[in-house]
């Protein structure tokens, strides 16, 4: 049975920070693979700033091509929106009973985790792998020393997709911030300009 870490994100666009984190989890934990789950269009986000699902998936394929333990996933593309993590997890468990699924999240998400739909069910059936984020909010007491929560000493990457999009709009060179193949695709397609 493979243990799969699910790294959910808009990945708009995927950047080297995402890869550094995903690779860190793949190489330093007991996770066999990291699936980069491209989340579908959030109804509350401005549509014009988010690339179509298939473009973000293509950018992720190009970014992870040379990393055998990192795999882009379009599992949410066929699910009803707005989508909740619990629905994706149920769908994945049904579709891949041969795998065990864990969730990767930043410390900031763990702080707000009790607000997630069916969070008790998630933590009952899945481990959480939590990476540090700069946050002044405190992890809830119930999650400290929890047997299903693994706090991972991962690099803190202060890099955001929105900052990259803004830089592209200003015609700044963002090439060092993106995996080379993704950058070429992004540039050829004139995205975010």
Q: Could you characterize the architecture of this molecule?
A:
This protein has a single domain (2-188), classed as Rossmann fold (3-Layer(aba) Sandwich), CATH 3.40.50.620. It has helices spanning 16-28, 53-64, 85-95, 107-111, 119-125, 161-169, 180-188, and strands spanning 2-9, 33-38, 70-73, 99-106, 128-131, 149-151. The chain has a six-stranded parallel beta sheet, with helices on both faces. With 193 residues, the chain is α/β, with parallel strands linked by helices.
Estimated helix fraction: 25-40%
User: What is the highest CATH level, the class?
Assistant: Alpha Beta
Q: Give the CATH superfamily.
A: HUPs
Name the shape in a single word. Answer: globular
Strand order of the largest sheet: 3-2-1-4-5-6
The number of E-state strands comes to 6
Task: Describe the SSE topology.
Blueprint: E1 2-9, H1 16-28, E2 33-38, H2 53-64, E3 70-73, H3 85-95, E4 99-106, H4 107-111, H5 119-125, E5 128-131, E6 149-151, H6 161-169, H7 180-188
Parallel strand pairs: 1-2, 1-4, 2-3, 4-5, 5-6
Helix pairs in contact: 2-7
